[in-house]
Amino acid sequence: MSCENAITVSAVSKKFELYDNPSDQLKQFVFPRVGRFFGRHGRNYFREFWALSEVSLEVRKGESFGIVGRNGSGKSTLLQIIAGTLTPSSGSVETNGRLAALLELGSGFDPEFSGRENIYLNGALLGLQKSEIDERFDAIAGFADIGQHLDQPVKSYSSGMVVRLAVAVQTQVEPDILIVDEALAVGDALFQKRCFRRIEQLLDDGCSLLFVSHDQETVRTLTSRSIFLENGRVASYGRTSDVLFSYREYLQKVEESEFRELQRINNVASVKQTPAKSYGNLDVEIISVRVTDSAGVEQSTFYAGDDLHIRIECVAHVAAKNLNVAFRIRNKEGVKVTTWGTLNEDMPRNLEHDPDVFWLREFGSGESFTVCFSGPCSLSANLYEVQAVVALEYDRYYGNQRILHWIDEAAHFSVVLRNREYVFDGVCDMGLRSYVVE
Predict the structure, then answer these.
(1) What is the rounded CA–CA span in Å between residue 238 and residue 215?
(2) Which residues belong to any copy of the ABC transporter domain (predicted)?
(3) Residues 6+ apart with CB under 8 A from 39
């Protein structure tokens, strides 16, 4: 294992034996042994299921690394193997440093013990001496913030209190490697904020993070590299933004596969193929995305406060209505700054009396149209990416949609500040203005 790596996973596979009924498990235990005694090779009474197949990855020291994939893709199995609670069928895993894992929270607690006793029990399991736990005890208790319940049996705790105590123990022992598997999704908003602050502090101190979540925005924000697992295999591995694009593209293909089956049943033409960095069935296709000034001239740099226009040109390949043309802007750190679309403007409008409701417009096959979004550029100095989308919205409230065409990196632009005229810090200027209260 390289001394630069916190985790090295080499060609790990994991096989499970699936039995149709309990009696088959008993047969599997007895009959093969009897057969081998007589020199025979009997049949197996189970079906093989490979949860992981030849998975390899490396997490560098101090790196934050993400794992994404649908339920059943092998994410949790991989984490359990890395944490040492499962043994791989083949391959190897090496870790370098103290490892703390937020997997099945509270699974290591004794329900008859008090919270205080379980802190010492879990600390010992993590390799800490009693004196080390004594030093960290106040920090753990303060982070958990369960008050007088700390000296009550864990079996009397609510699920939220168990989560608080488990997270407090694992994050306050100053691990070299922290594994998080959707654990923070179960806490309340304030506790989640406290957890993310603690994770950021651990990362600043050189801790390596292995993070699993279905929340793609959190994965993008917290991690620099990621892996996408599909049916136990590595589908994509590399920079987080690229991996998340592959994952979204995969999810779209799954949805389109289901939709194509409906098309087949209803004898509708099959969907068109899409270019790289985009996905969708192209019933309505985005032809171009341009960022321009008010005169329609394409620009790559804007001063904060300038008028900015995002022009999305589309063509309908089939008759279409109930559309939403929208965009998303991210900064170079991958933070989603804003999203906006025609549906956002349609939501408060009166369907019967407002002629400008875009959602009600009907477009014929072959018809082209352009939607332009305009306003003052209130973004701070940075490099920005524009993502564009046209979607079929089955209602007017973002409740149910189908992506027709999505494009990543559809356009880019930079924002700079006039440092002697208009200066602010952060993500954007909220437009707040001061006044004196007499």
Answers:
(1) 18
(2) 29-256
(3) none
